[in-house]
């Protein structure tokens, strides 16, 4: 199935491009590359990728402008931005322009792959049937999550939160990241809402010992699969 998924990789650092292209092709993706922004926009028109991995700091037009142009041209791809910057303003700017996720350099290939798969399943659910992750079975077309073969009764927000955590299992998710992806970057409420919903999910999963959804002190939450 991955051979059907097209990835456009945009970065001006040859060693990063070579490393990621080799890894992604070994995972079965069809990959095209660009080393600067205008080439990326041109390639995207013909290639029509499902996902764009886009560096922010590039010569000529930067990744923010490339993202804006891609979205303006109607590209339906998910956009994951690579950046050495960990500033909130940059994250908000990218999300406002249509980016779907951020990966901060340096990063592991496994983390990027997990985020890619999460974005693909979210944006192109019809390419996926039921997907099994340990004791979880996720069917986004039916908007159902089964745990140990039992359908969980979830509110829409609980569903989105648990789906986000399952698709990013093993990755520490900060409250800010969760708010961006589940509630939206324009959410003006308190971060404590995340704690309330995590507590509700733990109750429904009978996770009294926090063995599934772990609290990483000072960092956020991580869903671990048995």
TrEMBL record:
4-aspartylphosphate: residues carrying this PTM: 55
UniProt keyword list: DNA-binding, Phosphoprotein, Transcription, Transcription regulation, Two-component regulatory system
The keyword RNA-binding appears for this protein: no
Record feature DNA-binding region, as residue ranges: 128-225
Limits of the Response regulatory domain: 6-120
Keyword Transcription regulation: yes
Ranges where the OmpR/PhoB-type domain occurs: 128-225
Highest rank taxon of the organism: Bacteria
Gene3D superfamilies the record matches: 3.40.50.2300, 6.10.250.690, Winged helix-like DNA-binding domain superfamily/Winged helix DNA-binding domain (1.10.10.10)
Protein name as it appears in the record: Response regulator transcription factor
Organism, as annotated: Halobacillus salinarum
């Amino acid at each position: 199935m991955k051979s059907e998924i097209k990835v456009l990789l945009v970065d001006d650092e040859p060693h990063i491009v070579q490393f990621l292209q080799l890894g992604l092709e070994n995972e079965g993706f069809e990959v095209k590359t660009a080393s600067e922004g205008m080439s990326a926009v041109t390639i995207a028109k013909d290639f029509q990728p499902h996902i764009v991995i886009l560096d922010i700091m590039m010569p000529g037009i930067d990744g923010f402008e490339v993202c804006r142009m891609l979205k303006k041209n109607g590209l339906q791809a998910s956009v994951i931005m690579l950046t050495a910057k960990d500033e909130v303003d940059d994250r908000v700017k990218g999300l406002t322009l249509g980016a779907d996720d951020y990966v901060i350099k340096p990063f592991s290939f496994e983390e990027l792959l997990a985020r890619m798969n999460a974005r693909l399943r979210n944006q192109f659910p019809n390419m996926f049937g039921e997907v099994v992750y340990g004791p979880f079975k996720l069917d986004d077309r039916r908007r159902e999550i089964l745990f140990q073969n039992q359908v969980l009764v979830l509110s829409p927000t609980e569903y989105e939160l648990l789906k986000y955590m399952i698709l990013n299992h093993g990755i520490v998710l900060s409250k800010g990241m969760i708010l961006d992806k589940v509630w939206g970057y324009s959410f003006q409420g308190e971060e404590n809402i995340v704690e309330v919903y995590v507590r509700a999910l733990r109750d429904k999963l009978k996770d009294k010992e926090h063995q599934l959804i772990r609290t990483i002190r000072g960092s956020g939450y991580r869903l671990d699969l048995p």
